[in-house]
Amino acid sequence: MSRTAIFASCAKMPEGDGDEQAVSAALDDLGFTVRWAAWDDRSVDFADAEVVVLRATWDYPERRAEFLDWCESVPALCNPAAVARWNTDKSYLVELLDAGLPVVPTTLVEPGEKPDWPRTPFVVKPSVGAGSRGVARFGADAAGAEEHLRTLHADDRTALIQPYQSSVDTQGEIALSYFGGIYSHAFTKAAMLGSTVDPSGLYLEERVAAAVPAPEVRALAEDAMDTACSLLGILRAELLYARADIVRGEDGDPRLLELELVEPTLGFRQADAGAPLRFASAVRQQLA
Description:
- The chain is of the alpha+beta class and 288 residues long.
- Helix content is 28%, strand content 24%.
- The mean pLDDT is 92.
C-alpha cells in the first residue's frame, strides 16, 4: 500500500536545496510516494497526507504567525506544531541556558529596550530568522550595532546578542543530525558571516564537510536533545529529526549554538549512504 509523504517547502525553493535527493528513493523503497509542496499552497490538501515533513519552509520568519497557524492545521506534521512554535523563536536558547545547558551566552533585546553592549566581539541576530539572514558581527563599533538593532526593532523584531566565538574562524561549527531521537551523522560548517547569499535570497551559502564529533561534543548534543524534550514534554522519538549546532567556547569547551527542530539542512550530501535509509525508517516510525 502506497503512503503519501509531503515535504513542505516554500515558493522560492519549491524542492529545497537538493540535500534530500537520496531521501525520496529511500522512502519509495518503504512504500511512500513523496512529493514537494509549498506550505502556503492552498491547492494542496496537507491534511490528506500520511505525513507532512517540514523541510524547506525558509520564508516563515516574515510570516511566522501565519506559518504557525498552518502548522496547527496539519494533523500529521513532523516535527509537530508545538515544536515549531517553540523552536522558530530563538528565545528557546535562553530556556536551555536557564536549564543548565552550556549554551553560547544569549541576551534577548525586545523592541524599545537598549542593551549593555559587550566589550568583546559579538553577534546580533533576529530571534526569529532562518538561513543566517539578519545576522551581523561587531567589534568595538557600538554605533554599527545600534543601527542594526534599530533596523530589527523597526520591524518589531526581538534581537539576540551573543559573544562571537572566535573558534568559528578556524574550526567552524559542527552540526549533529538525529533521526527519531537517535544520532545519525555529523558535518562541519564554515563561518557564514559575510558569505554569499543564495540566489533565492533565503540563506547564506556555506562550506560543509563530513565530520566525526568528539566525545564531549556528542555528549552536549545528547544533553541538548534531552533538555529540549523535557521542556517540551515529549519523548526524543517524537522528533523525526533534529540538528544540534555546536561551537567551541574561548575555553575550548563545546557550547550549543542552536538546536534546529523545524527546517534545518540535515547534511545528507555529507553523510554515509545509510543516512537516507535511517531517515526513511524514522519517518515510518512516526506513523507507528
